């Protein structure tokens, strides 16, 4: 693979692809309403987020010296 530092050609309006029509920026698009299943899942997530997380139990390995590990 050849790598070079040539600049990219400038973008022009006369490309081979048709332009993309974007929605009017003044129009606010609202998402569709939630289904009952989605509402239940959202409630469960909210309940879990309110719960205080328990700190994980960590087990520390017994201390060994370098001599113990070699032998």
What is the secondary structure topology, with strand pairs?
Blueprint: H1 36-50, H2 66-70
Region (Disordered): 1-71
Biased composition (Basic and acidic residues): 37-51
What does this structure look like?
The chain has 71 residues and is mainly alpha-helical. Helix content is 28%, strand content 0%. It has two helices and no strands. The protein has helices at residues 36-50, 66-70. It is flat, with a radius of gyration of 30 Å. The two termini are 51 Å apart. The model has no long low-confidence stretch (mean pLDDT 78).
* Class of secondary structure makeup: mainly alpha
Q: Give the overall shape, derived from the CA principal axes.
A: flat
Low-confidence stretches: none
In round numbers, the mean pLDDT is 78
Please count the beta strands (DSSP E, at least 2 residues each). Answer: 0
Helix content: 25-40%
Order of helices and strands: HH
Brief characterization of the structure:
The protein has 71 residues and is mainly alpha-helical. Helices cover 28% and strands 0% of the residues.
Task: Record keyword descriptors for this entry.
71 residues
């Amino acid at each position: 693979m050849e790598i070079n530092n040539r600049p990219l050609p400038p973008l022009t309006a006369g490309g081979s692809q048709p332009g993309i029509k974007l929605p009017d920026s003044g129009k606010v698009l609202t998402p569709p309403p939630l289904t009952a299943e989605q509402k239940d899942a959202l409630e469960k997530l909210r309940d879990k987020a309110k719960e205080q997380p328990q700190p994980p139990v960590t087990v520390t390995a017994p201390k060994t010296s370098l001599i113990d590990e070699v032998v």
